[in-house]
Amino acid sequence: MQSAPAIQKLLDELERLPGVGPKSAQRMAYWILNSDRATALRLAQAIVEVKDTVHFCSRCFNYAEDDLCEICRSTSRNQQLLCVVSEPRDIPPIERTAVFQGVYHVLGGALSPMDGIGPDDLRIPQLMQRLGSEDIREVVLATNPNVEGETTAAYLARLIKPLGIKVTRLASGLPVGGDLEFADEVTLGRALEARRVL
Amino acid sequence: MQSAPAIQKLLDELERLPGVGPKSAQRMAYWILNSDRATALRLAQAIVEVKDTVHFCSRCFNYAEDDLCEICRSTSRNQQLLCVVSEPRDIPPIERTAVFQGVYHVLGGALSPMDGIGPDDLRIPQLMQRLGSEDIREVVLATNPNVEGETTAAYLARLIKPLGIKVTRLASGLPVGGDLEFADEVTLGRALEARRVL
User: Fold this and answer.
1) What family, per the record (chains A, B) (predicted)?
2) How far apart are CA A74 and CA A70, in angstroms?
3) Cα–Cα distance for residue pair B187/B193, rounded to 1 Å
4) Residue of A nearest to B30 (CA)
C-alpha cells in the first residue's frame, strides 16, 4: 500500500493493539482521518492522560488515580472480605455482578514455573502483610480457572489457612444459560462433583 | 464499572472507533495501561501527527502529506488512465492488485438522492475540469457495486462519454475462489450476462 508516511505510522501503531489486524487498523485509521480534529485529538489526549495519571493503588494494586483506588477509598465496602485476583482487568467483571462487597488484592499475574514466574514475582509478600495488619476474615481466591490460576490458588490456600483465615475459591460449573451438550468434560465433571441438593 | 475517570474517558474514546465495542475497548485500554509509556505515547503521537500532516491531494483528493499525493507525484504512472473512486480508502485495495498503473480521482462519496447527496456535493466539477485540461484517454469507474455506486457510475458515464473519452466500469461477477452455490442471484445473473467465450 502506497500510504503517506504519517498514515503508515498510524497503521503500525494501531496494529499493536490487541485484536487489531491490518483490516481493522485501516478502518480505524480512515475513521481518524475522516473525523474532525477535536475528536481525534480527544482520543490521543485520553491515551496520554491515562499514562500520566493512572498508577497502582498502594494498598490493593488495582489501577488508581490517587494513592488509593476507588474501591479502597469507599467507606461502604466490607473490609473483612478480601478477593484475590491476578490482574486489575479481573476486577470490573466481578464488580458488575454486584454480588461481592469486599475489597481486592491484585497479584499482578499467576504462578507459572514454565514461564519462570514464582511467588516472589507476584504481590504475595504484600498480601501476607495485609493479612497480618488488616482484620480480614475471609479470602476469596478468584484467580482464573486454568492451570496457572489453580496452582496460584492452591499455593495461597496452603499459605493462608494456617493463619486461621477462611479461604474460599470461585465455584466451577456450567455457565448460566450454557448448553449441557456443548460443555467440555472438565467443566461438566466439576459441575457433577459440586452438585447441590435441591 | 468503578473505573478511574481517566480510564473511563479512554474507554469512551476507544469505543467511538469503528468496530470497537465495550469489550474490545476494555482490552485495548488495559493493553495501553500495561504497555510502557513510550509505546502508548507513540500511538497518541501518531494520531496527532496524522491530523496535523495529512490533507487532500490538490489534484486527485487522495490523502497526501505534500501538495500532491504519492501516486500523483510518481513518474511511473500512466497519466492517461484515470480511475474514479468514492473514497480514499478505495485506493489501497486497487493498488494491492498491482493491475492498475494509472492515476486516481476521489469523489468524496457517491450520489444518493435519499441522503440528499447530489452531483454538487461530490468532486465531479473537479473531475470534469481534469478531463478538460489533462490528456486522459480512459476513465475507469470504480465506484462500489451497490445502488449509490451504480447510480454514480451511470451519471458519470453520461457526462464523460460525449467528451470522446473511453469510459469503463469494473466487471461484476463471481468472486475468485467463491462458491457458485453461495452466490447471490444478482451476482450470478451478472456473471451469466457477462459470460466470456473460451
Assistant:
1) Belongs to the RecR family.
2) 6
3) 10
4) A89
Q: What is the pLDDT of residues B71-107, one digit of tens each?
A: 999 999 999 999 999 999 999 888 888 889 999 999 9
Overall domain count for chain A: 2
- In this structure, are A158 and A88 located in the same domain? yes
Q: Of chain B residues 38-97, which have a CB less than 8 A from chain A?
A: 39-51, 53-54, 63-65, 69-71, 87-89, 92, 95-96
Interface confidence, given as ipTM, is 0.77
| Sign of CA pseudo-dihedral B23, A17, A89, A154 | positive
Count CB neighbours of B130 within 10 A.
17
The x, y and z cell numbers of residue A22, run together, are 491490518
**Which residue range is the domain that position A17 belongs to?**
5-53
pLDDT tens digits, one per residue of A117-148? 999 999 999 999 999 999 999 999 999 888 99
Q: Are residues B78 and B158 in the same domain?
A: yes
Q: Give the CATH number of the domain where residue B143 resides.
A: 3.40.1360.10
Q: Are residues B81 and B151 in the same domain?
A: yes
CB-nearest partner of B17 from A5, A31, A87: A31
Element (H or E) spanning B133, and its range? helix B124-133
Average pLDDT, chain B: 91
A188 touches B at CB < 8 Å:
no
Residue A121 within a domain: yes
**Residues B43 and B85 reside in one and the same domain:** no
Q: Would you say B29 and B43 are in contact if contact means Cβ atoms under 8 Å apart?
A: no
Q: Is residue A66 part of a domain?
A: no
CB distance B4–A41 less than 8 Å?
no
Residue A40 sits in the same domain as residue A101:
no
Q: Count CA atoms within 13 Å of residue A97 on its CB side.
A: 8
Nearest to A2 among B26, B32, B70 (CB): B70
Tell me, yes or no, whether B101 and B163 share the same domain: yes
Residues in A closer than 8 angstroms to B2, CB to CB, are 70-71, 92, 95
On the question of pLDDT at A1 being above 50, the answer is no
At residue A175, the pLDDT reads 80
**pLDDT tier at B1, thresholds 50, 70, 90:** very low
Q: What is the CATH number of the domain that holds B45?
A: 1.10.8.420
List chain A residues with CB under 8 Å of B14: 43, 46
